[in-house]
Fold this sequence. Notes:
The structure holds 2 protein chains of 2 kinds.
Chain A: H1 3-14, H2 16-26, E1 33-39, H3 45-48, E2 49-50, H4 57-60, E3 72-73, E4 79-80, H5 85-92, E5 96-103, H6 111-120, H7 132-139, E6 146-148, E7 164-165, H8 176-186, H9 192-206, H10 215-226, E8 234-239, H11 248-270, E9 277-283, E10 303-308, E11 316-318, E12 339-340, H12 341-352, H13 357-364
Parallel strand pairs in A: 1-8, 1-9, 5-11, 5-12, 6-7, 6-8
Antiparallel strand pairs in A: 2-4, 3-4, 5-10, 9-10
Helix pairs in contact in A: 1-2, 1-9, 10-11, 12-13
Chain B: H1 4-10, H2 26-31, H3 47-67, H4 72-77, H5 106-132, H6 136-148, H7 156-159, H8 162-170, H9 178-186, H10 189-194, H11 206-213, H12 223-232, H13 242-252, E1 255-257, E2 276-278, E3 288-290, E4 293-295, H14 300-311, H15 314-328, H16 335-347, H17 352-361, H18 376-386, H19 394-403, H20 421-424, H21 427-444, H22 450-458, H23 464-471, H24 476-485
Antiparallel strand pairs in B: 1-2, 3-4
Helix pairs in contact in B: 3-5, 5-8, 5-18, 9-14, 12-13, 15-16, 16-17, 21-24, 23-24
Amino acid sequence: xxxxxxxxxxxxxxxxxxxxxxxxxxxxxxxxxxxxxxxxxxxxxxxxxxxxxxxxxxxxxxxxxxxxxxxxxxxxxxxxxxxxxxxxxxxxxxxxxxxxxxxxxxxxxxxxxxxxxxxxxxxxxxxxxxxxxxxxxxxxxxxxxxxxxxxxxxxxxxxxxxxxxxxxxxxxxxxxxxxxxxxxxxxxxxxxxxxxxxxxxxxxxxxxxxxxxxxxxxxxxxxxxxxxxxxxxxxxxxxxxxxxxxxxxxxxxxxxxxxxxxxxxxxxxxxxxxxxxxxxxxxxxxxxxxxxxxxxxxxxxxxxxxxxxxxxxxxxxxxxxxxxxxxxxxxxxxxxxxxxxxxxxxxxxxxxxxxxxxxxxxxxxxxxxxxxxxxxxxxx
Amino acid sequence: xxxxxxxxxxxxxxxxxxxxxxxxxxxxxxxxxxxxxxxxxxxxxxxxxxxxxxxxxxxxxxxxxxxxxxxxxxxxxxxxxxxxxxxxxxxxxxxxxxxxxxxxxxxxxxxxxxxxxxxxxxxxxxxxxxxxxxxxxxxxxxxxxxxxxxxxxxxxxxxxxxxxxxxxxxxxxxxxxxxxxxxxxxxxxxxxxxxxxxxxxxxxxxxxxxxxxxxxxxxxxxxxxxxxxxxxxxxxxxxxxxxxxxxxxxxxxxxxxxxxxxxxxxxxxxxxxxxxxxxxxxxxxxxxxxxxxxxxxxxxxxxxxxxxxxxxxxxxxxxxxxxxxxxxxxxxxxxxxxxxxxxxxxxxxxxxxxxxxxxxxxxxxxxxxxxxxxxxxxxxxxxxxxxxxxxxxxxxxxxxxxxxxxxxxxxxxxxxxxxxxxxxxxxxxxxxxxxxxxxxxxxxxxxxxxxxxxxxxxxxxxxxxxxxxxxxxxxxxxxxxxxxxxxxxxxx
Lengths: 380, 492
């Protein structure tokens, strides 16, 4: 018996008592899927989806603004960054809804507090103990499988619902005897026992496709583990490197090339399931409207978010555009938030999973309980 | 009498397997280290070497660009190192090699290698010290402060420098005043480069005005000022405003690194390459108001005065006390212990041995009922110490810690690595430790008996279940691996 088949046996055997109900439910109820891609470090929405039609843009971004000219024009106002070729194709196919001037309730400029608000869904940092994605799992009647594509579970998925985590490793496999004995050793440890069972289940599903570490490989891996009747219904991918204080042009181009490749690989990997899938790409806050003196941008406020997937009512930009005139900026320096990210998430997930968006907002964001959006974000 | 093994796990780096436990008192063992200084390490890279390597790298990169105009993607990911544990967005082709590697001229590849060699030499020194130190508590403090004042070798500018912040700003200042530690860190080229301070220019400075008249765009970068307030001193949400951040950034202009600044300013900076320099021509003239206090024009001294005030601010005392208590006692630090450490900080105006004494005196730190989950670095060092393993080549340890999710001196943000179990006790992270434990156990060979070793490194913490599991292992190596991944050894 090789390692992988051992793990398969181990997961179904050892964990059967605890996990049988979940496994039974896994194939039932919803075939809808949701993936959250977090951009840690405050991604610059004004470069990602450039407001090229705004008369203030060129003067705020004398160096950084130039590249927008070669991007893909979405409408009279907005141009997608040229590195986002696949996102542009999804937009053309009406499978991408691009959202601008959007922000969480957080209004200061600390990454760590901002990410905490984005992930816990509280009104203030550290107000909520668990993450809104974990609460999402608990609102769903069939107790769907959820997975973080990372060695440890990120805050958005932390909470009382069980969550698996998986990321490919280059370490040599441990022997099968050791794996069994470790499972026995952890059986009575309240912290380690459940973690171990989750790990075995995730590894079983990853199979042998879990090699390669590039962006496209990460997208393909996520698709592999969320595909088909037994696939996880909820997933999260962490990306970092968006904090572009200097030399933003090249770094952001590289970041976006990777993001674009990952999203395309995920779409392609899901195949038929793409039509039942919603992807959210979001960041903790945006960057200053002005470029700074070192070819970058400092911490700001509103940014962009993307909704992607076969069921998304896409093909356009959703924004209540505040404008870039000096008087229109937030605190005279940042893009002003005019759209509530909590409301966007609750509305999209409510529509996607066939639940009342107002109830979804109450369950996921009880601290802010934002009024849902009226727009149709996800079809059928 | 407090248990020596307990102290070695809680306040040190874990006992070495061959150490006689002896009748020594644990608390006395920790406190005896406070009057000492860390010995200088052998064969560590110097700032001059790091500067030389960075300058050479930049020159090669410029040549490479001139010879073969690069696409924007090529330029960008040239600044990134190997994939971090969270996903790097740098694109990779199917074979896993970075796309542009084939096109990289050999001189540029060599310059990158030189930078990486400096990083590996620094890692080597850190591991060697951690495995053999006579003062493990002070080593722990070096690791703690290096994470508090995190710089990351995640871009080529800081690869050669990242380790030097710990080696030459933190290690010599562990048992002095917090103010001296803070000043040494904020003057260090690694910090000035990592948080973009080296390039920040006052808009009304000589250089700023000159650049503006030529239509060149240079100016302020507020990254370092913000992180000093948020991470290094007061802590986030402690009452400073965006205006305070910007004013502090203005006060800091002129703090830069000699010899490796860019553009026309470079020749105007005096000092030897790679050292701190105050460049008057970059400094924003005038009086600054920060946290309600006015700071008169005093060149380099202006920002220094701000730092000295921050170093003894009550919010700083609180912030440091919480972080120390979280690191040594519990994820949710007991408020009484935090308060005593905070008081010690305030009363002594940041005298670090006084602060450490308050931590060591906290009864909460000696309770065995809520152990901390060891992070990957702590667990790796404790494992190698327990098994008496010699330091492997730095490259191997670097690879291992990448896999375990905590690459040396490469946190993904200036906040450093997280210090709570939820960040490290992940399902997949646990499997990786089991895999790594298997590797350690094989390296230790057949000569070590886990049944005898377990009580020597775990003491009273060793549970019957773990002892039984070890005694029933099918081989000595499996027994050792089980010891390393046992619930008791994973915690300290």
